Sequence to fold (981 residues):
Amino acid sequence: MRDLKHLIYFENLLQQADNELIEKAKSEGKLCVAFTCENLPEPLMNLDNTFSIRLFAPNTGTTDIASYYMTNLLCETSRALLERAVEGGFNFADCLIAPDGCTMMNRCAENIELLHAMDKGNDKFFYENMEIPFKSDENGVELLVLQCQNHILKPLHETYGVDISDDAIRKAVAEHNRVCELIRAIGEYRKAEKPRITGYEFSVLTLASYVCPKYLIIDKLEETLAELKTRKPDEKPWRARILLVGSEVSDTAFIKLIEDAGAFVCCDRFCFGSFPGREPIAINDDEDALTQVCRHYTYACQCARMMNMEKFYGRKQYVADLAKEYNADGILYQQIKFCDPWAYERLTGSTMLHEDYGYPVLSIDRPYNINSSAGQTRTRVQAFVESIEIKRIKGGAN
Amino acid sequence: MDIIKNPRKRDGEQQLGVLYDGGKVRRRREWRGFKDTFFDYTRWLYLVSVLGKFIMNPYNVKGFFRYRWMANYLGVMHGMDKFTIGLRDEALRITHYSFNYVIADVTQSIVNCFRGDRRIRNDEEFSKHCVLTDENAMTAQMMGFKAEEARAILREVPTMFAANIFNQNSVIHYIDVAQQYGIPGDVCPMPESEAGISIDDDFCVLGSCAVQVNTTCDGSMMGNGLIAKRLEREYGIPTFQLTAPLRHREEDVQKYAAEDMKKAIAFIEEHTGAKWDWDTYFQRAKNVNDCTRKRMAQLDINATPYPQFFGAAFSLYNDTNYMGNCGRDPYFVKLDKKLLKLAEKGYREKRMYAREYRHRCIVWGVQPQYIIDMLYWMLQCWGVVPLTDMLSMVNTRMIAEEDTPENREQAYYDMAWLNENMIMRNRTHGGYEVLVDELWEFCEQMNADMVMMWEHMSCKALDGMHGQFEEQARERGIHLVWVCHDLCDPRVYSRQAIRDQFNSYMRTVMREEPLDPTIEVLPDENAW
Amino acid sequence: MSKLKKIPLMLLGAGGAFFVVTFTIYFFNLDMKLTSKLEPFFLKHYDTMPRKQYV
Fold:
């Protein structure tokens, strides 16, 4: 296929956390709200003159300092973020909001706070830790509302005078939804047998929507969507279509590696992905916007930490539904090494998607930066693709 | 700190290495002088009678042949011996009375499990009033139910937790099963082995429902899903997931926890037909407060130069009484009183349990001390007194115990508070303040000059603060001894590998010689 | 000696024998030495049991 017009531009934005769009937004007098977890309501961090940036640490090499503070037994994401923070790579932020989504990210945020790794030269900088629900129910909604009030809205208002009114939230939701609709519309092109966008290209665009000020990428996303309408797909079909599921993936090289091995990543169900992260938030005028936003995040959440059994079974059903909708031949469950929640979810998910739903499943763990273990992962994916092909030849579903 | 020398010579055995010969069990039991040996012998007889009574029941024999974990109970007496090494006088008595009751309590748990178990006795009437509860969780939600209407069955306690006290290899098989199915080897072996037990179909199957809690950690919470799936789908036992917020010191999470507690209680009522009884609840709330007061009194004594109730027995007793019991068994009130009386007597008589006390040590971190006799060994080998441990530093707040309309609402908050403050997770979660900052406060309160830091290599909550501990201990001039382990998987860190870390700190950093060199290296690799 | 008078002596003897036997078992750890020999047989038994492993 011909290259997407803005692909290199977006790829360049992802080369470092402190990208040119963040600098641009800051130069316009905007405030950067850094956060660490998909379970935080993004629109609440994009109010008034604020913009949200989800922290990631591209091109991570060693994590020596972070490993001293947190040992080498914590997940590499948490260590990569701490390392980058200590190196000064996140000094663009005006605050850090971190929920206790998982233990390791919590410890990462706490170390950043104790080491004052992000607040140098900014007297107003604040750190907030907050509780998020463990179950999708109205009690959880109520908790999330209170937590967002106490740990996002109040500190932003009291420290920086940010407008946290209902109108401001509705405006932020509208902007958020615009980005979501664009990403989802672009993602629709992955459904075709001969897709007009690769999984890698899509992951670049989606990741950019988390780590760049949203309002500064909308025009490029719109252009990309328009471009896709007439983009000519490759004639040669992919050897297999794979749904990628699991813990956070902020390394687009991982998707590229899978596709280089012959498997088209037709859908993404992971943290930093478009499902469920780029699902538009439906809000009405009957209830305050904050509650509705929090309800959306409480129920749409597909994080492994949600412990009620409706969610436990629901997560697998969600994956099966996506696999069906996006015509996946197989499912790849991945977890970042040392991640506890996904260690278990990977087992139950890969087992149930195979046994209950009949999909071929590959289950792997991986490093934060795939280049440190590219050979092993490529071999696993290649073998998986071959196994799908062989099964296809034999005519069996599994 | 100044070294305190014991003016009394210890009766009986002076060098304890003589008891070890590299086998599965010890060469012989310890000679403690006539009086204490006779006392130890009578407690042995008592345990023989408890176990004898157990094995006389044919259903228990049937259970013995059905469940792999039962084989670990062949080593009960060995486990008891582990925790009385070198002890005399009051400490010996305290350890025996507390630990013996824990053993009796676990025995009763197994009897209850087998009674309701569909594969063993299958007493359906009994089973339908049973509620399966997590091992690593408070049983606060059961405080208002009469036992005959809704009985908490902590089936993971005899299966996994207690079995590990008596045999260091007790869960290896289950870890292997879990890993064979794809759980990685880097997660905590405790929930991993519980998952393995479920996969291996080695849990008793009974009860009308189950209540799981997101304690202790991410691994524990995630293992629950797998266990619940089998319970629900294969055995038709519905499960409820009770949430305990992580930021448990924050006011703005308490309502969330209390509301979920109400739902858990309603769930139990629905599935067992039991009715919540406020008289029962408030009586048990009194018991909980009594337990809290007694534990604090024991800690007060341990803050003096003459600690009396310490070591793994202190920790295990607190686990059982505070968490597993949570006010439901009135005998603990009597036992608490008896133990405190003994401790006060020991304190008055300035009893010491080693030739000299060189260091006062707080034991912190996630501990494998039930598997190894480490704390007693530290005392006997190096004169390091274990004053308290992280798992014993739990709730100190009194809960409402008078039955008033306001207190009935407060009760849900209290139960939720207890649930949030179960052992271990009240320190490993809730922010660095409860794990790191408060440790230094305890060091000051208890005049400790040393911290023995159990670094459980798979416990991410603890490992995540490694550097902070290191730097802050240095700033405060506290000796911080890192002792790494992998909890219940001795293949990763053997007992001697654990002791070696302590030995090398004492020799190279402290430049000290052991009090009893015969136990510096112990051939107990193959021991239960 | 009458039978009645022998009873205390018999009780004392039985008690003494009980003490000697049980104390010997206790002190030389014979109980644990015995059960440690039983363990391999039990483990072999558990290994050969059919089980339904299930995630």
User: Anything to note?
Assistant: Chain B has a mean pLDDT of 96.
